[in-house]
Amino acid sequence: MAKEKKTYKKYDSSTDELNFTFSYNEKETAELHAKLNGSNSITDEDLRRVSLWKSDRVLSVTQDTLHVLNRLSASTNINLDDDIVKEVLEKLVLSQGIGFPMASAILKFIKPDVFPIIDVRAYRALTGIKPYYGTYSYEKYIEYAKDLTKIASANSRPLREIDEQLYCFDQKNNGPI
Q1: Mean pLDDT, residues 42-70 taken together
Q2: Element holding 161 (H helix, E strand)
Q3: Predicted confidence band at 147 (pLDDT cuts at 50, 70, 90)?
Q4: How confident is the model over 143-161, as a mean pLDDT?
Q5: What DSSP character marks residue 135?
Q6: Which of 79, 80, 137, 164 is deepest in the core (most CB within 10 A)?
Q7: Residue 79: other Cβ atoms inside 10 A
Q8: How far apart are CA 76 and CA 125, in angstroms?
Q9: Over the stretch 87-103, which tens digit does the pLDDT of each residue have?
């Protein structure tokens, strides 16, 4: 017997509101934002904290990766299409214990006005499709980030809230992952 494909409710900006209360490890979230937002002295220990915040895993990055990450963090006018964004994402994703969801979580703490977190729930709420770990790519992340930036602008909300709102939307409307 063929397995039936599950359908998911997709976020529709014309009919759905993003008005959830997002609550996830609030103390650590606030501390990470305070420490990393705009910092130019990011360490591997900071990345470990973000990793543990996102999901309990071990990670390891090179000094070169940290150097490029700190350059990105110190930059004042970062655009998703900048070469350094691609370089940082590639270096992070090639590091032990870091995939696109973790890399995007690290970047969100450093530049929440540019980088949203991509994860199963937020992506599923945005597209109506459940992604699998191996289907994430640089291109998919940039397209997702641009889509969320448009939603943030259309709703007059900070970008840093939109992935959280879509996460909550999916949790409410689409059930377990």
Answers
A1: 85
A2: helix 159-174
A3: very high
A4: 97
A5: G
A6: 164
A7: 9
A8: 31
A9: 999 999 999 889 999 99
Please tell me the distance from the alpha carbon of residue 165 to that of residue 21, in angstroms, as a whole number. Answer: 8
Distance in angstroms (rounded) separating the CA atoms of residues 28 and 26:
6
What's the one-letter identity of residue 47?
L
Kindly list the domain boundaries of the chain, sorted by start residue: 26-174
> Is 100:144 a contact under the CB 8 Å cutoff?
no
Do residues 107 and 88 make contact, with C-beta atoms less than 8 angstroms apart? yes
β-bridge mates for residue 60, sequence order = 96
How many whole angstroms separate alpha carbon 147 and alpha carbon 166?
A: 12
Residue 22, pLDDT score: 86
Bridge partners of 96, per DSSP, are: 60
Q: Rounded to an integer, what distance in angstroms lies between the CA atom of residue 119 and that of residue 160?
A: 14
- Give percent of the chain above pLDDT 90: 76
Token representation of residue 92: 């992070």
Residue 75: the pLDDT is 94
Dihedral of CA atoms 101, 111, 34, 97 in degrees, nearest 10, equals 30
Cα–Cα distance measured from residue 101 to residue 118, given in angstroms and rounded to the nearest whole number: 5
Helical (H) or strand (E) element with 72: helix 63-74
Q: Say which amino acid occupies 69.
A: L
Q: Is the dihedral of CA 43, 69, 31, 20 positive or negative?
A: negative
* Strand, coil or helix: 17: coil
